[in-house]
């Protein structure tokens, strides 16, 4: 699947051939740092001084590279070493009219960092609170203000969940009958993955 | 009771006192899990005659279990889980990343507050491994429950 590059995007990347081989490495590094940590204007200024190119050109070049890398990583197959995706990338940048050497460096940059970029992009997806862990405790209520001499067993649990960087803990309780019901229901859920229906879909969707 | 035709002739104040007294007596007896002889002794001290004591005790016996259940349910406790629903999904793509191909479970625990007010359910997503971890821990809890009952 080809990547479609807009005219503005192509103009941004147009600075690359003029920049020279060393500059490509530098811009590539800046682009990856931007993906990992966000924009760093000071780093761009330093690079501009070192390479003797205007700051704006550097900035645009870095942004262009970031877009190129993220879009390619987003769309390409997640199977590594898939020949087809490499061809797609090469065809996509071929339209920019760069030299073969430049194309090769860009391809290398993409292949080396594809996995990391995909994992960064994966964290941007919408998320529900996700399970972290569960602690449990067996309690027996012996008496209360309204009734003396009881024997009421209960399982008290602390459910730890992750919600985008925060950890929340919720205290819950259940009685033995419900606990057995929960176990039965969730075991059924686990069993579903092994059923033929799910297996067929997973196989055919790759 | 104030609308009951049989009790029309009695002074409402007296009726209220009687009702309150009887209710208090029943609740105390229920709370302490008093047996028949203790209740009879108590009522004798209050100068009730034998026939009335017997009637009271018979009625009390009939409703004792329901009373105990009611009293036992009063009180605060953490959110109580009543049921669980789950959903298995297979993610294909999202707007940040295409071809993700990952199965995941969405589990919802239906919970109830101790005063029967509804509470938003607890929902979370998890991978197959995480669900296995959760089920393993729940099974440990169930096993220790079983061992406790055999002691």
From TrEMBL, chain A:
Residues 130-197 form the COMM domain. It comes from the Eukaryota. It holds the Pfam family COMM_domain. This is COMD2 protein.
From TrEMBL, chain B:
It holds the Pfam family COMM_HN. It comes from the Eukaryota. Residues 80-149 form the COMM domain. InterPro entries: COMM, COMMD3. Coiled coil: none annotated. One of its GO terms (biological process) is sodium ion transport. CDD domains: Commd3 (cd04751). PANTHER family: COMM DOMAIN-CONTAINING PROTEIN 3. Belongs to the COMM domain-containing protein 3 family. This is COMM domain-containing protein 3. It comes from Dicrurus megarhynchus. The gene is Commd3.
């Amino acid at each position: 699947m080809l990547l479609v590059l807009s005219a503005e995007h192509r103009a941004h990347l147009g600075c690359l051939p003029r920049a020279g081989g060393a500059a490509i490495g530098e811009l590539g590094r800046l682009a990856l740092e931007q993906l990992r940590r966000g924009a760093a204007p000071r780093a761009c200024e330093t690079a501009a001084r070192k390479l003797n190119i205007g700051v704006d050109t550097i900035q645009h070049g870095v942004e262009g590279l970031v877009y190129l890398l993220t879009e390619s990583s987003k769309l390409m197959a997640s199977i590594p070493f898939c020949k087809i995706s490499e061809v797609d990338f090469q065809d996509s940048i071929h339209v920019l009219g760069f030299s073969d050497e430049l194309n090769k460096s860009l391809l290398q940059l993409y292949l080396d960092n594809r996995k990391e970029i995909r994992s960064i992009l994966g964290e941007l997806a919408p998320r529900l609170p996700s399970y972290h862990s569960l602690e449990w405790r067996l309690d027996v209520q012996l008496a209360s203000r309204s009734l003396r001499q009881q024997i009421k067993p209960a399982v008290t649990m602390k459910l730890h969940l992750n919600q985008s960087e925060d950890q929340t803990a919720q205290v819950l309780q259940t009685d033995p009958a419900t606990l057995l019901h929960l176990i039965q229901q969730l075991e059924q859920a686990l069993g579903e993955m092994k059923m033929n229906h799910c297996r067929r879909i997973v196989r055919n969707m790759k | 009771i104030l609308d009951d035709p049989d009790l029309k002739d009695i002074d409402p104040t007296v009726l209220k006192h009687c009702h309150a007294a009887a209710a208090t007596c029943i609740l105390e007896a229920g709370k302490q899990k008093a047996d028949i002889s203790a209740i009879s002794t108590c009522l004798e001290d209050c100068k009730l005659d034998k026939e009335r004591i017997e009637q009271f005790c018979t009625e009390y016996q009939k409703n004792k279990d329901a009373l105990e259940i009611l009293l036992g349910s009063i009180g605060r406790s953490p959110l109580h889980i009543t049921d669980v629903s789950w959903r298995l999904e297979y993610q294909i793509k999202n707007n940040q990343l295409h071809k993700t191909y990952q199965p995941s479970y969405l589990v919802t625990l239906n919970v109830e507050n101790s005063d029967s007010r509804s509470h938003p359910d607890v929902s979370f997503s998890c991978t197959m491994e995480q669900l296995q971890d959760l089920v393993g821990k729940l099974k440990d809890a169930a096993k220790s429950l079983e061992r406790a009952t055999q002691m």
